[in-house]
């Protein structure tokens, strides 16, 4: 990715190059020419000051402000101390190397911020608003609720709204990470941040930019770095104690042993090594950076994790509890099977659909959808029998469409089905006995990726997959068995769901609850992690959940756990690496084995490696 | 009142932390956070004293990191 250096960074780079060149010259001179020590001092002081004057100045200013123990002070003491012991090239090189490291840190952080920001480059920059018949391009913030905007193919949809005219296909990848385009036409809702692909549409806005989905998501990701993970808090506290501790150690190292062996210079040299390695920067920068990168990568995949602390908990999840309807299943009914007697299946559906054509019940709608086009002219008198079904005249013949109780009441010899689900029986009125024509099995469809979602979770080592539902036991068992869930609890009231979650939490496991957010608020709050699904546009879900999945796919849950685990492992790698190297160098420094160069590596090199490692959090293996 | 400002030239995570602590210690500050990752500074204080507190906060922050600029 192209990264432009800032003015400050460019200046620094020039200073570093200039200083390096002069240092090189100085080193060559001293190699071949014998010059008095004060000449050498001046010779090396030049590149030293070129590259390090701001550090010296900064250290001085900070001391005046009461800030003594910081990096600048340490570098100043360390390098001036080296000058004092006549190690001129060393001192200059240390300052040079330190500044190179600082520049690198600045660039690395700047680049990381930029690539993480580009992951989230979903912000629309303009909107074409139509006012008084004139189309003009304005910034999205200027559009009011209820105004009409036009969106052309290839443009980002700037605000949430409803399509007034036109139809098109929309790419929601920016929000959900899914690239399969969705059709949308007049009357459909559109979401800000998605990409309009094929057609021109005019949209009536339903909200202002500040409250739009895209703004909410961006705000969420930005604020996520404020919720610190436990690890981050630990590092912060550690850093506050580490630096003073090492400095005190350095002072002791410089003052105490020489009392016994009078080798002042040697011990001061070793103390300087201590000072250089005392900066905890590598930890303080790399840990938050890893989380930031991980959260950015997750949001690119349509997974919004609201805080680093949630990411930390996600990596430890052992139990996942699912709501059934709308989470594992589509929440809409569909015809699963048709078993017809004497007539063809399509005829059975046709009759049932005609009979139900005036009903708006979801079950009726599923039959009608399966039938396709029915002309209502074929349907005569329709009588609804509460709790039983419908008696309707279709093509002049009386039919009964409904449940087992209806069949019993008209004495039609009906057959129940081995399949679970809602069974709609159809019978035809006849002179001597009502003829049973067959039945239609209707079920809430399991989402196509639900089986994969569960198996992926198990592959990740999730020990317990649980379903809690208010639906019938038989239906729950059917769905549960098909998906391979470990625990199935049905016919639950909302309070029962909470008790189950509390029971599971009581076993000491880390628990995530997955629901559609709207009516699962109490359970979402009790769980260690509350995951809301299908939140494209849902305010309630974004508010109450800790993790928001922007599309309807339960398989994303396994992905979120994977990303969290990877991020956590990189965080720990960095901590162990940085601390380990520093402790080793401190020991070697105290023993006199490590010199200034190794010390500088322990500070700058470790920092650079830690930052590069953190950036690995940006890529997710699928 | 709670307001968020963009920050310029905050390159050291340690400094960001120190700035945050310095601002939190100011009288009248309800809450403050310096976000190193996003380079944003959020300050919450009572409406009447907000401008005053903000000025003190900027001063405190510059003591820690003289190069840091708060973009109002």
Based on CA atoms alone, the radius of gyration of chain B comes out at 11 Å
Rg of chain A, Cα atoms, Å: 35 Å
Unreliable stretches of chain B (pLDDT < 50, length at least 5) are: none
In the CATH hierarchy, the architecture of chain B is 2-Layer Sandwich
Our measurement of the CA-to-CA distance between the termini of chain A, rounded to an integer number of angstroms, reads 22 Å
Beta-strand content of chain B? 25-35%
Order of H and E elements of chain B: EHEEHE
Overall structural class of chain A, as computed from helix and strand content, comes to alpha+beta
Domain tally of chain B: 1
**Proportion in β-strands of chain A:** 15-25%
CATH topology descriptor of chain B: Alpha-Beta Plaits
Widest sheet: strand ordering of chain A: 10-22-21-20-11-18-19
> What kind of sheet is the major sheet of chain B?
4 strands, antiparallel
Oligomer: heterodimer
Mean pLDDT of chain B: 82
Distance between the termini of chain B: 15 Å
The strand count of chain A comes to 22
Helical segment count of chain B: 2
The average pLDDT score of chain A comes to 84
Stretches with pLDDT under 50, minimum 5 residues of chain A = none
* Largest interface chains and counts: A-B, 28 and 18 residues
